[in-house]
């Protein structure tokens, strides 16, 4: 074999397509443990809610290609980097000239008293589990979503717009805690409450009870919530246990350079499984769908380069439309930053950007996301951009003193935003 790719999420599929485009004489073998490849994970909430059919979920696939071999339904058991082989659970051994690891993540399953053995509990992560949810839920039932990050809020919104009764339980005191500050998140929370979504913020699920083996209620904040389905959306951990003993892991992490190269120059890795270390010694885990796509493509481009190219951006930018509320997240607060914002009264709009030494470090656009592309470009450039930020936040924008902030425009020191564990798209 020439090129072997492990995993068929966004990183793996785009890596395969890029390999066939850039290295047309090289064969590609794509290995996936599930029975199908390339399901679009951001669309799983719509699938669960019955808004899209399964056939609409899949990423673009190449036409019939004799040099692209797809193996599904079998997982990789181990890797021998010296022998340049991967061993599958079905006993097959596959050799490689170059290898891309894109195994993704595994959902975090919390320990909740009384939940063991109950039916109706599902992680929100992959197509098989989403299919189980789709077949389990009924519109006259109450669905509890555990986790108010990106995956949790999208899941809640799509299910609610399809008529389901929804409650979100989030351990932090506001939604989207890794991407938004409390003030910004309040706009999203108000929108959710108007939609009829119940919010239990600053709470965890304490216990669960069932009837006839099926979950019926969950306890949070000392009160019982009817719960006919519990969806776990509290994040994931890298799916890298099969690499134990391979010599690629460092302190339990699959570490790669900014060019996505592992310790072995013939092996690259991308997506939710990796921790990226930049030359300044900082580590990054930008686990989002756009990042996975970019990383998969770059890993493929770098396979046979003598001087692999680094990623152009390590940002966690994400956009979504929450049933009429547009939201673009440029990144969370960085300590020492200041804030430039625009929030016209009664307009339901908040546009904020965090800067440090004149450079964008993050921000959010709620209700009006115009200019998000140029702002993201400035974020990637890392140059002094305060004058351009002023222009993009509001036309003819001018900085005014904080005591005039009731007019909707202000600049002030930003507050520290509590973080949480990494979430995925």
Q: What secondary-structure arrangement, pairings included, does this model have?
A:
Blueprint: E1 3-6, H1 10-22, E2 28-32, H2 44-48, E3 68-72, E4 76-80, E5 85-88, E6 93-95, E7 98-101, E8 105-107, E9 121-123, H3 127-136, E10 142-146, H4 150-161, E11 165-170, H5 182-195, E12 198-201, E13 205-211, E14 214-220, E15 223-226, E16 229-232, E17 236-238, E18 249-250, E19 253-256, E20 267-269, E21 274-277, E22 283-284, H6 289-302, E23 318-322, E24 325-331, E25 338-342, E26 350-356, E27 359-366, H7 372-381, H8 386-393, E28 409-413
Parallel strand pairs: 1-2, 1-7, 2-3, 7-20, 9-16, 10-11, 10-16, 11-12, 19-21
Antiparallel strand pairs: 4-5, 5-6, 8-17, 13-14, 14-15, 18-19, 21-22, 23-24, 24-27, 25-26, 25-28, 26-27
Uncertain spans: 396-425
Strand order of the largest sheet: 23-24-27-26-25-28
Strand content range: 25-35%
Please give the share of residues in helix.
10-25%
**What's the overall geometry?**
globular
Number of strands: 28
**CATH homologous superfamily identity of the largest domain:** FAD/NAD(P)-binding domain
CATH architecture of the largest domain: 3-Layer(bba) Sandwich
Largest sheet geometry: 6 strands, antiparallel
DSSP helix count?
8
CATH topology description of the largest domain: FAD/NAD(P)-binding domain
Mean pLDDT: 89
Radius of gyration: 23 Å
Q: What structural class is derived from the secondary structure elements?
A: alpha/beta
Q: In angstroms, what separates the terminal alpha carbons?
A: 32 Å
The CATH class of the largest domain, by name, is: Alpha Beta
Total tally of structural domains: 3
């Amino acid at each position: 074999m020439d090129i072997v790719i492990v995993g068929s999420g966004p990183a793996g599929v785009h890596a395969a397509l890029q390999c066939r485009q850039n290295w047309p004489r090289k064969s590609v073998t794509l290995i996936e443990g599930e029975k199908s490849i390339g399901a679009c994970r951001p669309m799983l909430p719509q699938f669960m809610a019955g808004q899209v059919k399964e056939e609409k979920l899949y990423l673009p696939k190449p036409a019939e290609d004799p040099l692209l071999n797809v193996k599904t339904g079998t997982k990789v058991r181990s890797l021998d980097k010296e022998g340049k082989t991967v061993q599958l659970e079905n006993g097959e051994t596959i050799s490689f000239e170059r290898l891309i690891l894109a195994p993704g993540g595994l959902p975090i399953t919390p320990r909740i008293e009384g939940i063991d053995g109950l039916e109706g509990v599902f992680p929100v992560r992959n197509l098989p589990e989403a299919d189980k949810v789709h077949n389990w839920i009924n519109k006259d039932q109450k669905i509890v979503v555990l986790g108010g990050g990106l995956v949790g809020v999208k899941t809640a919104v799509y299910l609610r717009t399809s008529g389901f009764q929804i409650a979100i339980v989030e351990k932090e005191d506001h939604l989207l805690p890794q991407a938004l500050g409390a003030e910004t998140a309040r706009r999203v929370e108000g929108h959710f409450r108007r939609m009829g979504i119940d919010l239990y913020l600053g709470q965890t699920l304490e216990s669960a009870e069932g009837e006839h083996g099926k979950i019926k209620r969950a306890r949070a904040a000392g009160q019982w919530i009817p719960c006919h389905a519990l969806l776990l959306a509290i994040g994931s951990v890298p799916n890298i246990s099969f690499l134990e003993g391979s010599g690629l892991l460092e302190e339990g992490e699959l570490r790669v350079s900014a060019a996505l190269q592992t310790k072995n120059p013939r092996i690259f890795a991308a997506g939710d499984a990796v921790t990226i270390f930049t030359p300044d010694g900082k580590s990054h885990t930008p686990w989002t769908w756009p990042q996975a796509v970019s990383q998969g493509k770059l890993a493929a481009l770098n396979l046979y380069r003598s001087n692999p190219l680094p990623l152009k951006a390590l940002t966690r930018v994400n956009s979504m439309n929450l049933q009429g509320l547009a939201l673009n997240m440029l990144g969370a607060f960085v300590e020492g930053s200041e804030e430039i914002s625009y929030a016209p009264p009664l307009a339901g709009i908040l546009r904020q950007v965090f800067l440090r030494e004149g450079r964008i470090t993050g921000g959010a656009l709620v209700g009006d996301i115009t200019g998000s592309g140029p702002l993201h470009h400035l974020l990637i450039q890392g140059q002094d951009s305060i004058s351009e930020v002023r222009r993009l936040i509001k036309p003819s924008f001018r900085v005014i003193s904080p005591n005039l902030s009731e007019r909707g425009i202000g600049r002030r020191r930003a507050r520290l935003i509590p973080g949480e564990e990494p979430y995925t798209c």
